Amino acid sequence: xxxxxxxxxxxxxxxxxxxxxxxxxxxxxxxxxxxxxxxxxxxxxxxxxxxxxxxxxxxxxxxxxxxxxxxxxxxxxxxxxxxxxxxxxxxxxxxxxxxx
Length: 100
Known about the structure:
single chain; mainly alpha
């Protein structure tokens, strides 16, 4: 099995780490914005949990899976990118439920 060049590996690691940071920042932003829902008199608890805690869980899973993939000499870009998409979806679903 042929190994990737060191340049390609460095670019893969750099992009993966960047996406992990973006995923974490997005999760913190959604968490902060979701806490504003607590100011509502009675937010939907399922929507609140999905919108506030879901993005954080998705970001943590994305970072862990990305690190595992990188240590196994595979591309880890997919994991944090998927975490970003899942975070956005969870927050959108949560906000829809809270607003209903």
